[in-house]
Amino acid sequence: MSWSATVRYSKESAPEGLAFVQDLMNTVAAGKPRTADLLDDLGNAQDWLDQALAEWSNTTGTPTAGIELTEHDREELRGFRDDLRRAAGQADGDALPPLHTAAIAMQFDGHGHVHPEPRGTGWRRVAALALIEIFQAQQARTWPRLKMCRNDRCATMFYDQSRNNSGVWHDVKVCGNAANLRAYRARQRAQNAS
C-alpha cells in the first residue's frame, strides 16, 4: 500500500500519521503536469478515503472503522482540505480566516495513558483524525516541515527533509530549476532593457 495522493508526485511521505494529513492535502489538483482532484466526485473521494484510512491504520498500528461519505461530506471535506492547505502555507503569526472544526475526545487507554479519539461521522471524523495528527506533529515539531511547493504552478505538499528545514520546492530538479530559470531570464531581460 501507499499514500495514493502523495505518490502521484514521486515524493516521500511525511512520517507516521502526519502522512495522512499530507495525503489529504495532496488530493487537490496540483503538480506538473496537473493531476486530477481526487475529491472531485463522491466515488473518487470514497476510494481515496478508504485507501488512506487503511494506510493510516497500517502506519500507526491503530485499527479504524471505515468512514462513509455523502455528497455533503465530500464538499465539506474539500473545504477542510483547503483550510489545511492555507494553514500549512501561512507564515507564523499571520491570522487565519475561520476554519472548519471537528470534535475530539480524550480517553484513557487500558494502560492508563490519555490519547485523543476522533468523534463524529463523515467528513467530521476525517477532520478530527487529521487534526489529531497535526496536534501530535506540532508536539513532535514535525508540522512545520510539511510545506507547499513554492512553485505556484505546482502547489504540491511535501515533507521537508532538509537538515535546517529550508526546502521550498517539492522537487528541486522540476520546480526549483524552472523557477530559477524564469528568474534568470527575467534578470537578463531587465539587464538588456537598461
Highlighted features:
single chain, globular, 4 strands, Jann2411-like fold, 194 residues, 47% helix, two-stranded antiparallel sheet, mainly alpha
Spell out the blueprint of helices and strands:
Layout: H1 4-7, H2 18-25, H3 42-60, H4 71-89, E1 104-108, E2 114-118, H5 122-140, E3 146-148, E4 157-159, H6 172-193
Antiparallel strand pairs: 1-2, 3-4
Helix pairs in contact: 2-3, 2-5, 4-5
Provide an overview of this structure.
A hairpin with a 5-residue loop joins β1 and β2. The chain has one domain: Jann2411-like fold (Orthogonal Bundle), CATH 1.10.3300. The strands form two sheets. The chain has a two-stranded antiparallel sheet. Strands 3-4 form a two-stranded antiparallel sheet. The longest helix is centred in the last third of the chain and has 22 residues. The mean pLDDT is 87. The protein is 47% helix and 8% strand. The chain has six helices and four strands, in the order ααααββαββα. It has 194 residues and is mainly alpha-helical.
